[in-house]
Write a structure and sequence with these properties.
The chain is of the alpha+beta class and 341 residues long. The chain has 15 helices and seven strands.
């Protein structure tokens, strides 16, 4: 998740999951306007796949759905979270060599799709277990998400294992109230409410062996994309990442350190001190952002130097040209010629 985030909340979840929720809601006669009540989300976000959504907004949207559809709809919602709905993470699992490899990737890279969960794997002599905990206080929407995610993993495991193992019995435990004894959404899976943990359990022998879709080339490509996405997530979760995000949103105006500090509800001195603790500075973040965008605009567009200078918040093209030469050793026009544009 690398695009500009929308909504409110410290943690992020991919808009892909919420767009999927609007599809399920539509089938149940629940309007998008109803889902978005009190979320601080623009209606246009449902047309924007894979953008980060703040967890408070996401939970409010899910709660609006639960109020009208109930918690048991989480099983169907999770089953619809197919491999492709999980983006590169789904493809990394699909093309893994073994289920152990796939599970390790889900545990490592889950934050690239949703920063809402903590996952832990465990194995005994007969079974493999996947435990899940939320990073926020218990709520109806949180319960819904836990059940949906475990339902998704259960369905994906069943699709990935060898054909002769697809009828194996699995077990899904959840910590909240409910009666799922008659559920038919997840065939061959027993769902137990009021359990001490949130956990998915599969028999060990059903998950052994090479996965049928193993592809080392595609697996490596997916891993590389996920590593890049994970680095982006890690940076965004730092103060430097938040400063960079703000500057990127207001690049043409290029706010001062005082402006950005005010947006973060702190003084400029506090902001500078905290950035120093992360071994960064406001000027460094600003210069890196301007330089990276300048390179892209010079390489990939036909904008004039004056237009680029304006987009980067410079008062005139000469100041931009001086800065760019200090960064790269070349003038903007020289860089453009070398890049073949």
């Amino acid at each position: 998740m690398t695009a500009k985030s929308v909504g409110v909340g410290e943690y992020r979840v991919s808009s892909d999951y919420l767009i999927l929720l609007t599809e399920l809601a539509f089938e149940r006669g629940i309007s998008t306007a109803t889902l978005l009540e009190g979320t601080h989300l623009p209606e246009t976000f449902i047309f924007q796949p894979n953008i980060p959504v703040g967890h408070e907004s996401a939970l409010r949207m899910i709660d609006n759905f639960c109020e009208r559809a109930g918690l048991d709809a989480a099983l169907e919602y999770g089953k619809r979270m197919t491999l492709s709905k999980h983006g590169a993470l789904g493809f990394a699992a699909q093309y893994s060599e073994t289920m152990t490899d796939a599970a390790a990737k889900v545990e490592r890279y889950i934050a690239t799709r949703a920063q809402l969960f903590e996952l832990e794997r465990e194995q005994d002599s007969n079974s493999r277990h996947l435990y899940i905990r939320t990073r926020f206080p218990d709520s109806r929407a949180g319960y819904f998400l836990v059940l949906a995610f475990l339902s998704s993993v259960e369905s994906i495991c069943r699709a990935l294992v060898k054909e002769e193992n697809r009828g194996a019995r699995s077990m899904l435990q959840i910590q909240f109230d409910g009666n799922f004894s008659g559920q038919t959404v997840l065939p061959n899976c027993s769902v137990y409410a009021n359990s001490p943990v949130n956990c998915l359990t599969w028999p060990l022998d059903a998950l052994e062996g090479m996965l049928p879709f193993f592809n080392p080339t595609l697996s490596t490509l997916a891993d590389q994309e996920l590593e890049q996405a994970l680095n982006t997530v890690s940076e965004t979760n730092t103060l430097a990442g938040r400063v960079r995000e703000i500057l990127n949103e207001h690049l043409s105006e290029m706010p001062t350190v005082e402006d950005v500090a005010g947006m973060l509800h702190m003084s400029a001195a506090t902001l500078n001190r905290k950035l120093k603790a992360e071994q960064r500075s406001f000027q460094q973040i600003k210069d890196d952002l301007r330089y990276n965008k300048a390179q892209r605009l010079l390489r990939d567009t036909t904008f004039s130097v004056d237009q680029i200078a304006d987009q980067l918040g410079y008062s005139d093209a000469s100041n931009f040209a001086k800065a760019f030469k200090a960064w790269s050793g070349n003038s903007p026009s020289q860089y453009r010629q070398q890049s073949g544009n």
